[in-house]
Amino acid sequence: MSGGKLDLTDARDAERFVLENTKPIAPPLVPEITLWLAEESLPIWQKTEDELGELNVPPPFWAFAWAGGQAVSRYLLDHPEICRGRPTLDLGCGSGIAAIAAAKCGAPHVLAADIDRLALAACALNAVANSVKLETTDRDLLSAPPPKAGVVIVGDLFYERELASRVVGFIDRAKDQGCSVYIGDPRRSYFPEGKFTRLAEYEVPVTRELEDFEIRRTTVWRA
């Protein structure tokens, strides 16, 4: 940290910020997993802007266990054969909840990908909290070739039009490479209706501050 400001190029500084502004919480649908999470969105968002010395900082998506991530993680833990023995990518990993679930299911290599370096700091801390190993990357993998013959997890990535379009393209390419793709999403604004196969549905407890609901009906899909 330099001059009292958050330095995202320093992993230790990013982890310090996560630890100082969150606490260990077990998401209600996935109590087997403990994550460093925030209890309210506005204070941590404001603190991020203050410490970075910037305005219009993206929301701290990594600081919350979103409904889609909880649902797909629950499904993976209940069906460990999906990831057992298969390399797994958690795309737009946020807190890393799905990556951790995959590791707990026996995936030999798990890559947690997010362009937000605070998300990757949270993933590293959450992996330690759950005694699993993850690799992280801040590369924009949506512009890269997909993995071959592994598992791809997509949790709650259909909330913006451009992002959703890029995610769908990546999913299509991943399927062409022989990947199995699992999606957790509560039918957000740009979810591609009719494209995926429904596997399971969950009633996910969420915070009204983020969702305007106390329970969010969320579906797990396979591409």
Count the DSSP helices.
7
**CA radius of gyration:** 16 Å
Principal-axes geometry comes out as globular
Instruction: Domain count, please report it.
Output: 2
Strand order of the largest sheet: 5-4-3-6-7-9-8
Low-confidence stretches: none
Count of β-strands: 9
CATH homologous superfamily title of the largest domain: Vaccinia Virus protein VP39
Mean pLDDT: 93
Can you put this structure into words, describing what you see?
With 223 residues, the protein is of the alpha/beta class. It is built from seven helices and nine strands; from the N terminus they run H-E-E-H-H-E-H-E-H-E-E-H-E-E-H-E. The chain has a seven-stranded mixed β-sheet with strand order 5-4-3-6-7-9-8, sandwiched between helices. A two-stranded antiparallel sheet has the order 1-2.
In short:
The chain is α/β, with parallel strands linked by helices and 223 residues long.
List the helices and strands and how they pair.
Layout: H1 11-21, E1 23-25, E2 35-37, H2 41-52, H3 67-78, E3 88-91, H4 97-104, E4 110-113, H5 117-129, E5 135-137, E6 151-155, H6 161-176, E7 180-185, E8 197-205, H7 208-211, E9 215-222
Parallel strand pairs: 3-4, 3-6, 4-5, 6-7
Antiparallel strand pairs: 1-2, 7-9, 8-9
